Amino acid sequence: MSQLPPCPECKSPYAYEDRGQYVCPECGHEWRQADAEAADAGESITDANGNPLADGDSVTVIKDLKVKGSSAVVKVGTKVKNIRLVEGDHDIDCRIEGIGAMKLKSQFVKKA
Predict the structure, then answer these.
(1) Residues 102, 67: one domain?
(2) How far apart are CA 65 and CA 72, in angstroms?
(3) Domain presence at residue 84
(4) Is residue 22 part of a domain?
(5) What is the C-alpha separation between 92 and 71, in angstroms, rounded?
(6) CA–CA distance, 112 with 101 (Å, rounded to integer)
(7) Which uninterrupted H or E stretch holds 17?
(8) How many CB atoms lie within 10 A of CB 7?
(9) Among 68, 104, 106, 110, whose Cα sits 20 to 30 Å from the Cα of 50?
(10) Using an 8 Å Cβ cutoff, are 37 and 43 in contact?
(11) Which NCBIfam families match (predicted)?
(12) What are phi and psi of 16, to 5 degrees?
């Protein structure tokens, strides 16, 4: 029997496998096995097409994005230069001309 990974939320060692995913009985968190394997392999952040991103890359926005707290919108096709990858839900730090500093999700950009 292989060693199961601990829960990524509460670090509980009591996670178990259930129909293609892992479940934590202590906090109730569920995650896919593929996500756990990708985290173990140390895979990098990828764009919407699956291309790996790196610091300093240029990306293009693939969807209109509303700017929180403003009436501004980042339009489709906006090119963003010199991105920085960070940890978290919004994994790209950048500066967009006319708007300023922003955090973007990698699922809404493609590598330019």
Answers:
(1) yes
(2) 9
(3) yes
(4) yes
(5) 21
(6) 19
(7) strand 16-18
(8) 21
(9) 68
(10) no
(11) phnA
(12) -135, 165
pLDDT at 1 over 50: no
Non-local (6+) Cβ contacts of 30 within 8 A are: 21, 22, 23, 24
**Residues 6 and 37 grouped into a single domain:** yes
Determine the pLDDT at residue 42.
54
Which residue from 29, 26, 84, 30 is spatially nearest to 54, judged by alpha carbons?
84
Backbone angles phi, psi at 38, to 5 degrees: -65, -40
Same domain, 27 and 64: no
pLDDT at 30: 86
In contact, 108 and 95? CB cutoff 8 Å: no
Say how far apart CA 16 and CA 28 lie, in whole Å: 11
**Residues of the domain holding 13:** 1-41
Chain position carrying tokens 């952040």: 45
Q: Are residues 63 and 106 in the same domain?
A: yes
Distance of CA 107 to the CA centre of its chain: 7
